[in-house]
Amino acid sequence: QVQLVESGGGLVQPGGSLRLSCAASGSIFRLNVMGWHRQAPGKQRELVAAIVSGGNTDYADSVKGRFTISRDNAKNTVYLQMNNLKPEDSAVYYCNLYFRMRGDDYEYWGQGTQVTVSS
After folding, report:
1. Are 33 and 98 in contact (CB under 8 A)?
2. From the CB of residue 114, how many other CB atoms can be counted at a distance below 10 Å?
3. Hey, which of 1, 69, 98, 109 has its CA 20 to 30 A from 51?
4. Residues 115, 10: contact at Cβ < 8 Å?
5. From first to last of its 119 residues, what are the pLDDT tens digits of the chain?
6. What three-state secondary structure class fits 20?
7. Burial tier of 63 (Cβ tally within 10 Å: 0-12, 13-18, 19+)
8. Cβ pair 69, 96 in contact under 8 A
């Protein structure tokens, strides 16, 4: 069974920074996509950023230039560096892992970590 453990959320003032981490454990196919999604109250969950095992990345337009996703394949860990945070970035952030193996899709979610941007 795969587990995702997130850390790094909290309260920060506008313009501040936070770094989220997500460590995956268990049976994980080496070719995979790890990412961060977020969900604010009353809104749908949305993709923030994703990174494939080869290093290619994708970002939501709202975070381009402010957030950076990275990963350590040896540790099965993904990071999200969030700079110049805005109140609209406040949400629960969820780590996500996806891979396809032997024709089957596998997708896992972390428990979520709260990020609050407020003065």
Report:
1. yes
2. 11
3. 1
4. yes
5. 899 999 999 999 999 999 999 999 998 888 899 999 999 999 999 999 999 999 999 999 999 999 999 999 999 999 999 999 999 999 999 999 999 999 999 999 999 999 999 99
6. strand
7. buried
8. no
